[in-house]
Amino acid sequence: MTRKLxxxxxxxxxxxxxxxxxxxxxxxxxxxxxxPEYTIxxxxxxxxxxxxxxxxxxxxxxxxxxxxxxxLKNGVGILDLxxxxxxxxxxxxxxxxxxxxxxxxxxxxSILPPLIAIALALIFREVVTSLFAGIVFGAVVxxxxxxxAMGLIYGMMRTIDTYILNALTDGGHMSIILFSMLxxxxxxxxxxxxxxxxxxxxxxxxxxxxxxxxxxxWLMGIIIFFDDYANTLVVGNTMxxxxxxxxxxxxxxxxxxxxxxxxxASIAFVTTWIGAELGYIESGIQNLETLNEGVYATFILxxxxxxxxxxxxxxxxxxxxxxxxxxxMHRAETRARTTGVVSSTQTTTLxxxxxxxxxxxxxxxxxxxxxxxVPIGVIIVGTLAGLLYTGWDTEVWNNPDHALGLKLSEIxxxxxxxxxxxxxxxxxxxxxxxxxxxxxxxxxxxxxTSTSSxxxxxMEAVIILTLAWSLAEITAEMHTAVFLTRFLEANITPVLxxxxxxxxxxxxxxxxxxxxGTMAILYPLILPASWIMTExxxxxxxxxxxxxxxxxxxxxxxxxxxxxxxxxxxxxxxxSLASSCHHIDHVQTQMxxxxxxxxxxxxxxxxxxxMGISSWILFPVGLVILYLxxxxxxxxxxxx
Length: 640
Description:
four-stranded antiparallel β-sheet, 2 domains, alpha+beta, 8% strand, 26 helices, signal, single chain, Immunoglobulin-like
């Protein structure tokens, strides 16, 4: 037996060597063609052409009998074709012929994933499940067209191993998640160490009348700008005893708390909102090759069209300074000031909710305002410094033809906003931790625990963000923006896109109770569609950009308006609880004010801005209109 093996061994070795010596690469003149698994009807798609000799240069082809050339680079080139239903493609090259019948998905199917997400959100009033359902549906459709019946299972698997995984492994997406977590941790630490309470105590001590009490509440809502939840919880709970003493109704307190929280958090440069907003905006602009600006620049430049948030903050101030109200709010204030009954119904305060204990100040410590102001200042200054550092361009700065504002805009527009936000948020958290430990307010274990609890408060936002990015990838693959653009082009003028966007965002936010969920659904859908429409309409770049920025702001502003009117909104509910105001009383008294400001924002802001009128004109006009509304429709309390 051993002898036989010895004789056969050389034979086996020769077979192995001969096999390994066979060429593993195609001949130099051989052409390979790779077709896509599926196509979208009437939308261009790519076919990959490969030549075995790494040839670079033009390659002559015959596509359905017509001569065409493809430029190869290192043996690889891309042939662009447009899918037509049941129309086969024949490609001939280097004596070889390839046949392909596109599995074309009807373009109108591309609108179904986001529509399903919106519809389910309207029906069940829950965003996470709705977004996930939209992703699954889109993935299954793509899978079925690519693999037939087995695509049902294949699409389900791609939901997690492709779309959600890609959303989490993207560098920009992870930067946003980290920033949001760090801000959440910082908010928790400066709440625990008494810094936030110190700011509140410092301001509330100066409130001696109903007007000054409301003004102090409004001012605190502006100062605590970096997080709407922190704003709502801290201002509502701490000012409640002050406003009760001054005979200010709980409805008015809840309104001021609610209507300063989201508006100021949504437009400030450094907040827990900014990470989500940048992520949503990025998902809408990442494939717009002709848009020559970054995501942070888009956000900053869109603020000039944020009419509703800014008008809301001003409207509250006009009500306070003129000592007037109207509608249900006036009846509530009259009750409080004449009878001292500040609330029609007593409710449980937010302090009774254990799941929000991370915002409570640690017992037995002295509140010091600088424990919050210093870390927040580090984040603000650090973000600005990081933007200037990463975007610095000496030529831009030294350009004598550019004003200072334009120079800063160009520098910030080219900056790495993710690095700036990460650096500053980490620095702010470290400073907050050092200040807390050095004063022996908490030990390092307690600081870590508090930071972790702050991380947990951002988990819902992270989940929504991840699903939103995944749905954006689905809509990009299915070319939803192309369908929406073609539909809108045939029905409306691009000038009306901002106001339609504002109303649509308000309706979705009202029905779902989530401004973040609304932005997650609409930004990836509306931004590319609006940009493509303005280009197709032949608008000049600067005018198209102004409409695009108006649309960007309208998604955000409409989301906040719908959130203010919705009885199922998280911030509306938190405002009621933090102010110990009956929830329905809060909704009924706030809605007329929110709708009033929303109407002014549409008529004197969004629509004329889309027509080319400068925001420098529109903001003063809108503010005057709001002042006159309060003056002539508001009822005074001078005789009370």
